[in-house]
Amino acid sequence: MKLSKFGEKFTASTGIVELMDDLGTALNENPDMIFMGGGNPGRIPEAETIFKQRLEAVLADPDQLHSLMGIYQSPQGDRQFRQQIASLLKKQFGWDLHAGNIAVSNGSQSAFFILYNMLAGDMPNGGQRSIHLPLAPEYIGYGDIGLTSDFFTATKPEIELLDDNQFKYHIDFSGLEVSEQSTAALCVSRPTNPTGNVLTDDEIEHLDEIACRADIPLIIDGAYGLPFPGILFNQARPHWNSNTILVLSLSKLGLPGVRTGIIVAREEIVQAYSNANTVVSLACGNLGPTIARELFRSGDILSLSRELVGPFYQQRATRAVKLFRAALGDVPYRIHRPEGAIFLWLWFDGLPITSQTLYERLKSRGVLVVPGHNFFPGMKSDWRHQQECIRVSYAQDDKIVEQGIKIIAQEVIKAYESGDN
Ligand SMILES: Cc1ncc(COP(=O)(O)O)c(C=O)c1O
């Protein structure tokens, strides 16, 4: 097979491809694997019941069933669904929104592919623009999304050391460089995948000011965040204005299989996005909107997030931290303060092996995690810290998480004791 440049780039085995391969292996070929790698959400029975009831109501009504399966939806998404989302966000947060500010995507990953490449890469004037990530580490799934090289730049974080073997990353605003010529947009995930960090309201305000001043959008990836699925363990304010592109998803509510993302942006951006989405996808899938419509109409999506989904993960995070503390003992470990999302981010200071080697050793012992170096798209430096971290999901059942943590701790202790490479 002779591959184009596009073919070479997008068929290569990258961090996200390896992660999703692991996920497929764990699901299909080796179900005994302890899966603490990918971003599959946990199972929340009450949420599953709500989705099931909604689906049953649709199946019982021939007209709704036809709307679900028998029509192409517009590439921007069903107008009534978009209207419901806009009304809810307007009522709840006072954001000046209507249906024209909302687009639906086939998962938020595909929305990022279009949005990023729409804004960054080779520019018509011959220049090049990149997406800037103000706080590395960031989501592994951005890494290979750009059609051109040098697609991302990133700012190294400040590290605040906390009690109880915890730490927290902050944006180093003194090192955050935005160029009007070469920066296309700022992007942060909030809560951050992989760390579970939640950028403070002040940090978001500061980023907003910088983006507005440079006349570039601030993209907020709310896959875990505000206002839904609400996987946050502290107080934070949802943010949107006409310079913000807020990208949301139904996945972490428990619906990753329906592949539904939601973009909230000013009309000009939404229109451009949906033209591009027509070329790429022709139309949006109907399943996610069909299941979620009633939740948006009633506002129950917010209470579901606040009362069920957020507390579910908070309880799991607390438990996972406790188990790691007990298992790691005197190892020089630190855990990023869990403020949201579905992962713990562990930092092993001075780890004698790389995070990739640790990942491989754990995989051979039947535990899947994600090695930390994959989460630094755009970071050009050879900062050792990138090789000293791993991301561990705590979304699976308690027993599985407990077994996995034991094995991770054993391998980490072994690596420090033998000091090998
Ligand atoms: C931070 C972040 N953004 C975006 C996505 C993409 O999610 P989806 O395409 O399922 O909406 C994920 C998936 O895990 C994620 O963790």
Summarize the structure in short:
With 421 residues, the protein is an alpha/beta fold. The chain has helices at 5-11, 15-29, 45-59, 62-69, 79-93, 108-119, 201-214, 267-281, 287-298, 300-328, 355-364, 398-418; strands at 34-35, 102-105, 121-122, 128-133, 152-154, 158-162, 166-170, 183-189, 218-221, 244-249, 261-264, 333-336, 343-348, 367-368, 370-371, 389-393. Residues 39, 107-109, 139, 141, 189, 193, 221, 223, 249, 251, 256, 261 line the site of pyridoxal-5'-phosphate (PLP).
How does this structure look, described?
There is one protein chain. This protein has 421 residues and is an alpha/beta fold. It has helices at residues 5-11, 15-29, 45-59, 62-69, 79-93, 108-119, 201-214, 267-281, 287-298, 300-328, 355-364, 398-418, and strands at residues 34-35, 102-105, 121-122, 128-133, 152-154, 158-162, 166-170, 183-189, 218-221, 244-249, 261-264, 333-336, 343-348, 367-368, 370-371, 389-393. It is built from twelve helices and 16 strands. A hairpin with a 3-residue loop joins strand 6 and strand 7. Residues 39, 107-109, 139, 141, 189, 193, 221, 223, 249, 251, 256, 261 line the site of pyridoxal-5'-phosphate (PLP).
| CATH architecture annotation name of the largest domain | 3-Layer(aba) Sandwich
Please count the beta strands (DSSP E, at least 2 residues each).
16
Query: What small molecules does this complex bind?
Result: pyridoxal-5'-phosphate
The radius of gyration over CA amounts to 21 Å
Instruction: Classify the helix fraction into a percent range.
Output: 40-55%
